[in-house]
Predict the structure.
Amino acid sequence: MKRIIAAIAIMLLITEVAAQSTFDFSVKGGINLCQIDGDQSGSYNKAGYNVGANTTFPLGQGNWRMLVEIGVSEKGAYVKGLDRTISLTYIEMPLLLTYNIGTNDGAVIRLGAGVAPAVLGKARAIESGTELPEVEQRYKKTDPLPFCADLQYRFPSHIGVGVRYYNSLLSVNETKNGAYRIVRKNSGAFNRLLSFCISYQF
């Protein structure tokens, strides 16, 4: 509950900051297609959801902007061979460097990349209808360094459609020696997902 209250407080802060003329403010929601590398399953076979709010502000006089977002995102995986569903609900805060490309009709294409640190709100693992607390407890309370790449097309009507790619660089479950995306050797677990959303910019 404390994490949810903190997330709401940050959203309100974003709204307050976005009221300044050089800032914009957007709300978004959509679906995730997820998997966990290292869970014996290699396909985007777990559906989740994402909701959030963000603001961007200019960096200098060009088209570069900084995006700061707060949101809730359900990640996880389905391991078909075990009939196991893992649902990981995170409060996340993407921080992205973005570049806006305008079009002749007033639409905007946004390209972005950065990180999306996340705090685990709830972990749930169910296998053949039975909950697995011992599996749930393996997942760390934070996913501190997921890479995030962003592509959005915003229509002149202020409605946007977008896709993001997330990839954890640090293991999200407990391992004896720790695990890093670049050097891992079949150890650890790493969130990987495609996130699709519809947004509205005020």
Notes: The mean pLDDT is 87.
